[in-house]
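Re: beginner question about structure tokens

> Can someone show what the tokenized structure looks like for a real chain? I only ever see the sequence side.

Sure, here's an example I had lying around. Input first:
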Amino acid sequence: MHDYDLICIGSGPAGEKAATQAAYFGRRVAIIERNAQPGGAMVNTGTIPSKALRETALLCSAFSRRPLPGMQFNIDRSVSVARFMARRLYIEQQEHDRIERSMDRHNIDVHRGVGRIVDPHTVEIDHPDGTRARFSAAYILIATGSAPVRPANIPFDDLNIVDADSILTIDRLADSMLIIGGGVIGCEYASIFAEMHVKVTLVHRNPPIMPFIDDDCRERLLKTMTERGVQFVYDCAVSSAAIESDSSVTLRLDTGESLHADKLLWAAGRAPNTSDLGLDSVHVAVTDRGQITVDDKYQTNVPSIFAAGDVIGFPALAATSMEQGRIAVCNMFNIDFKASLARTMPIGIYTIPAVSMVGISETEAHEKKLDIIIGFAPYANNARGRMLGDENGLVKCIFDRDTGALLGASIVGEDATELIHIAMDAITNHTGIEHFINACYNYPSLTELYKYAAYSALQALNSSATNSNNQAA
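And the corresponding structure tokens:
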């Protein structure tokens, strides 16, 4: 007999949901967590804190986006980021309480300390007080998340040079900031700080930024970020960074150019937290980047060991990590509940404006030689979009030319990460142009953009049909 049916190493989104799923179905479960608070990066350093700061930035910039005569809003730049993030701490505490209540309700044992796998069924824990314990389980789930990559030539020991986990601990709101990396995290923070009137320079090795998003949406995102003052430096690599006598930062590029700012945020990649797990001792297969290799059941090459979340790589999103944890448990114990991830999954990027997408993109459709028709609906033509001051927003829908079914959608603009779920449901239910045109949406609302994207596609469809008939004649 084992001590537990399942031991989860890590209490982030994958570990928490896996543990509660298994406990819900009557399994004996334990979680090993090295940090004082549960929730992983999702709650403590990443998803929730950064989105809380984003909401604060939007509040600060509301008057500039929707100006009112005689009213101004100025940011006190001497105020610490902690003051700006006061609501973040409240939200985090609520999440900590929710997770702990859930663990208590499901009778999940929580062991504080660093877990290390010693054999396919045993985990050793080094507790903070120096004691050590071992527990065995029928199955082990690795859900230890990821951490920012820290190159050796960057002096992270200085308070003015931070990574994506420590950015929210900076002492004050800087006048200027260098951000290295044009991925999701770098672009999110670049737009957030620019919104609070920080002079931001974003350095990215190979353009474009976030190459996986739709070209039209990226163009509008870049336009907005540029309008808010973000400067982009492409086609270069970082050679070194140095702290000056006034505590500012000088960044030297391989082009010979030097950039100067008050603060530097390194946001060029994350690495899975797998180095001290003892994977070598049990021969768990990993990639050359340290990501754990799993099959479609989230099972490693060691049958009793599963993995989910950031440790297995893309897409490394909180939403997908939660589902991966649940699915892994169902596969472990042959629970007929969740067998695989949903075929249609949205991606949300919390830049300002936000970007979200689901289904196939225009580029993918062309690569697959699909016969498509595209519908566009700009926020500028929508009453609600104009009220929000979002002149650059866009809903772009990819429809099947023959059936009118929605195949994919990309959105840039206010509430994009909420709006995208309408497209997700349409794709899942194989509806599209006809459904959107016949639907009655609240007015004024952003949801009405789908109706006009459908009208746009219908107009393009009729126009192409007319041109074909004219050519035939």
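Each token stands for a local structural state, so reading them left to right follows the chain. The chain is about 35% helix and 25% strand.
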